[in-house]
Amino acid sequence: MHAKESPRLHQRTSEETDILNVPLEGKMQKKHQKGTDFWGNEWGQRYVRVCDDKGRMHISKKKGKEGDIVFSMSDLSEVAPLSPTDQDSAGLLHCFRVTQAPMRVVLHCSSERERMRGRLRPRGDGACK
Q1: Which three-class secondary structure state does DSSP give residue 62?
Q2: Measured between alpha carbons, how far apart are the two ends of the chain, in Å?
Q3: What are the Cα distances from residue 45, in Å, to 59, 77, 127?
Q4: Which of 23, 78, 80, 129 is most buried, by the most CB atoms less than 10 A from its CB?
Q5: Count of alpha carbons within 13 Å of 101, Cβ hemisphere only?
Q6: DSSP 3-state of 120
Q7: Which domains does the chain have, with CATH numbers?
Q8: Which residue in 40, 39, 57 sits closest to 48, CA to CA?
């Protein structure tokens, strides 16, 4: 009698492992909700941090702040990539929308690879503050 062959398991790449196992944080561009700022800019730089321990995504103006906008990961209704033709992306490539009623933000990355990673980098300490 022959032993059954086990199905092949998906081998994760190192990039997939980083995304799954390491806390993520980094800078992104966030679209302003009310049009442009004083200087006519439609986008502002924000610091985004995902905290797996607390199940939250924090968006703040500076690194180290708790977050001006905080999303509960379990309550997100949408995380969707946007095409340049979508009104929310304002013609830019590599944008995505995060929605948790009543909040909604549009974030912009500089490349498709960064968008797929959420442009967030693994944190060194592994702890959430």
Answers
A1: coil
A2: 56
A3: 10, 24, 24
A4: 23
A5: 1
A6: coil
A7: 24-122 (2.30.29.30)
A8: 57
